[in-house]
Amino acid sequence: MALEAHSAARGAIPRTAKPPPHPGRWQRWKRSEAFAAWLFLLPSLVGFLVFTAGPVLAAAVISLLDWNLFSPPSFAGLGNFARLGSDPTFWTALGNTAYFTFVSVPLTLLVSLGTALLLNHGLRRMAIFRSLLLLPYATITVAVAFVWIWLYIPHDGLVNSVLGLVGIHGPAWLVSEGWAMPALILMSVWKSFGFGMVIFLAGLAAIPQQLYEAARVDGATPWQSFRKVTLPLLSPSVFFTVVTSVIGSFQVFDQALIMTDGGPGARTTTLVMYIYQTGFENYDQGYAAAQSLVLFAFVAVITGLQFLAQRRLVHYDV
Questions:
Q1: For all residues of the chain together, what is the average pLDDT?
Q2: How many C-beta neighbours within 10 Å does residue 59 have?
Q3: Segment 189-230, tens digit of pLDDT
Q4: What would the pLDDT profile of 116-149 be if each residue is shown by its tens digit?
Q5: How far apart are the C-alpha atoms of 187 and 148, rounded to whole Å?
Q6: Residue 11 and residue 15: Cα distance in Å, rounded?
Q7: Cα–Cα nearest to 267, from 184, 191, 197, 159
Q8: The predicted structure's pLDDT at residue 1
Q9: Beta-carbon-side half-sphere exposure of residue 316 (alpha carbons within 13 Å)
């Protein structure tokens, strides 16, 4: 009886609830915002490692080899890089690429900005124009290149026909040593300006109208409003467009391959085209990889300089 009474007494006493287990470090990290951020970034990170970092590392290894794809590679050390100094075609291709970049990027920037200003102020409701002007950028480069080959036909092409109306005898654009590269640049500007236009339109829409009203009250002219209000507040858009355009211009390849095949002579041979010819026409994989790394270094240095310049030229505060 005493035992039963003791058991009944114990059952009547409520048991103290056990405290919840303390979450471990892994559980706390799973619940954090950092875990969610890494989860969303994971697909892009995998893509970067597989399609960007991996090929760069592979190119770095191949650049040290003498390899023609059909026989076992042999170690060449820095010999492929030493060949670059005495290769005139490499320097010609590098010069052509620099020419293309430093002419096409400012032109694309000006056309994009001018078109965006027109659409933002004068043609605000004409969304159809925005779509039509963006069409060249959305069209594949191969199709655009074949259309421009037809436009550049010396005698019956549309470009020379229009020039003939004002008494100008147009050149044989794509076979002229002096006009082949400008012809490629003109086609590339037409193909690319739609991208910059969209970026600038977004930047213009973010500028508060009160700033323009204040400028008008202070007696500012339209040019002064553009120089003192629009340009500073549009500088992040300009910076983004310049960086992406420079990187894209240093990789110009398909339009030059289709429209001129690098000619006449080597006047339109770009660096990426020369890398392609070296690696897949001459099967000199090690030398092509060395050229690729040099191109990578050029683009990295120029992009780094642009990021240094943005500290003084780009304004993120409204």
A1: 88
A2: 18
A3: 999 999 999 999 999 988 888 988 898 898 888 899 999 889
A4: 988 887 655 667 777 888 888 888 999 999 999 9
A5: 7
A6: 9
A7: 184
A8: 47
A9: 4
Residue the block writes with tokens 């409003």: 225
CA separation for the pair 291, 299 (Å, rounded): 12
Could you give the residue ranges of the DSSP H alpha helices within the chain? Answer: 2-12, 25-30, 33-48, 54-62, 79-84, 88-117, 127-138, 141-151, 158-165, 180-205, 209-217, 222-225, 231-250, 254-259, 271-276, 285-313
Bridge-based pairing state of the strands 74-75 and 65-66: antiparallel
Two tokens at 31? 């619940």
User: What is the rounded distance in angstroms from the CA atom of residue 94 to the CA atom of residue 101?
Assistant: 10
Distances (CA, A) of 148 to 31, 145, 160, 167: 56, 5, 12, 22
3-state DSSP assignment of residue 220? coil
Q: Is the pTM of this model over 0.90?
A: no
Query: Alpha carbon of 258 to those of 144, 175, 229, 263, 294: distances in Å?
Result: 10, 13, 43, 11, 25
Asked if 83 and 294 touch (Cβ cutoff 8 Å), the reply is no
Residue with the larger pLDDT of the pair 112 and 316? 112
Distances (CA, A) of 164 to 95, 154, 158, 169, 278: 32, 11, 10, 6, 41
For residues 48 and 155, what is the distance between their CA atoms, to the nearest angstrom?
48
Q: In whole angstroms, what is the distance from residue 136 CA to residue 192 CA? A: 7
Residue in 26, 217, 190 with CA at minimum distance from that of residue 112: 190
Give pLDDT tens digits for 245-297. Answer: 999 999 999 999 999 998 898 899 999 999 999 999 999 999 999 999 999 99
Q: How confident is the model at residue 20 (pLDDT cuts 50, 70, 90)?
A: low
Q: How far apart are CA 249 and CA 104, in angstroms?
A: 8
Burial class (CB in 10 A: 0-12, 13-18, 19+), 248: middle
Q: How far apart are CA 298 and CA 306, in angstroms?
A: 12
